[in-house]
Design goal:
Elements (H helix, E strand, L loop, with lengths): L1 E11 L4 E12 L4 E5 L6 H8 L7 E6 L2 E2 L5 H11 E5 L10 H10 L7 H14 L15 H13 L5 E5 L7 H16 L3 E5 L3 H4 L4 E6 L2 E7 L7
Parallel strand pairs: 3-8, 3-9, 6-7, 7-8
Antiparallel strand pairs: 1-2, 1-4, 4-5, 9-10
Protein name: ABC transporter ATP-binding protein
Pfam families: ABC_tran (PF00005)
Family: Belongs to the ABC transporter superfamily. Macrolide exporter (TC 3.A.1.122) family.
């Protein structure tokens, strides 16, 4: 589903060069739920951004669905992101002036001609029902709790039925009870067929995934299969 081959990522300014990732070789299989852990600044979010085609490696190759994307034009990358990848962020990134339903519908607006207005609304409603927020469709983000905002963000990520979901600290801003609820939703999405890659600082959340990759100073230092704990 996702393959990173001999990846290196270097950030350069006029005075300094920072090696963010080095010698990354990682394959995420279809249907897998993979977590990424490591100390702050070790390259976790950079790795996720490369998988999500939000950034490009300095050297190496990224493949999505077996296809190298290194030579894709920006417009092709944008189309691939919109059709194949859903993003969940720690800070939700909801638009305060839009209703919950309108926020969820946003990714579909960029699919030129693929869905009509009524069908977009129906898909957004279905996504909100999946995360248990069908009774909050007309609310605005300021009227929601942190856990509800994250569920809206998940609905927005899945509304286009992407094959891949990338989650950057999805439980990081939530208390343990809300974090467990969000994690249960992600587990169900994975059980329904979504491939999920999640960055987390929480070992207990990582242990509820299939596989754990550890980073340190931009390098992979661990890659282990887990016995998934279905308990809360």
């Amino acid at each position: 589903m996702i393959a990173l081959k001999n990846i290196e990522k270097v950030y350069r300014t006029s005075t300094i060069e920072t090696l963010a990732l080095t010698n990354i070789n990682l394959t995420v299989r279809a249907g897998e739920f993979l977590s990424i852990m490591g100390p702050s600044g070790c390259g976790k979010s950079t790795l996720l951004n490369l998988m999500g085609l939000l950034d490009a490696p300095s050297t190496g190759q990224v493949e999505i669905g077996g296809q190298p994307v290194t030579q894709y034009r920006d417009v092709d990358l944008a189309r691939l992101r919109n059709q194949k990848i859903g993003f969940i962020f720690q800070s939700f990134h909801l638009i305060n002036d839009l209703s919950v339903l309108d926020n969820v519908e946003i990714p579909l607006l960029y699919r030129k001609g693929d869905e009509t207005g009524p069908s977009r609304r129906e898909l957004a409603r279905q996504a909100l029902e999946k995360v248990g927020l069908s009774n909050r469709m007309k609310h605005f983000p300021s009227q929601l709790s942190g856990g509800q905002k994250q569920r809206v963000a998940i609905a927005r990520a899945i509304v286009g039925q992407p094959a891949i979901i990338l989650a950057d600290e999805p439980t990081g801003n939530l208390d343990s009870a809300m974090g467990n609820e969000i994690m249960s939703i992600l587990q169900q999405l994975n059980a329904d067929g979504s491939t999920i890659v999640m960055v987390t600082h929480d070992e207990s959340m990582a242990k509820r995934t299939h596989r754990l990759v550890r980073l340190f100073d931009g390098a992979m230092v661990g890659d282990s299969l887990l016995m998934v704990n279905e308990g809360r």
